[in-house]
């Protein structure tokens, strides 16, 4: 699933990702290159079935591309460092940004702030 998502621009089935319900404090990294992507403080439950964040750790962390596949117009998000597919961003998120970064768990790893434990999505 991880290769399918990150390299073939796939999507994991909703509500199946290992990191969907993770509520620990820490940082979400790109599974492929380990670049920091999102802080847990920006994660929220959007109800969409994939981990959702309202902002990345930095502007450089994410690359944005127009995605016209499947008869839809969307904005694809990729790792700004290695170009791995992460998911999509939508303009229906909470304040302060109003954005919802909808990310496949399979494209992420998580590092716990408290004990340094790592978990792959």
Automatic annotation (TrEMBL):
One of its GO terms (biological process) is response to oxidative stress. Residues 1-113 form the MsrB domain. Binds 1 zinc ion per subunit. One of its GO terms (molecular function) is metal ion binding. This is Peptide-methionine (R)-S-oxide reductase. The keyword Metal-binding applies. Its EC number is 1.8.4.12. The keyword Nucleotide-binding does not apply. It comes from Puccinia triticina (isolate 1-1 / race 1 (BBBD)). Coiled coil: none annotated. Keywords: Metal-binding, Oxidoreductase, Zinc.
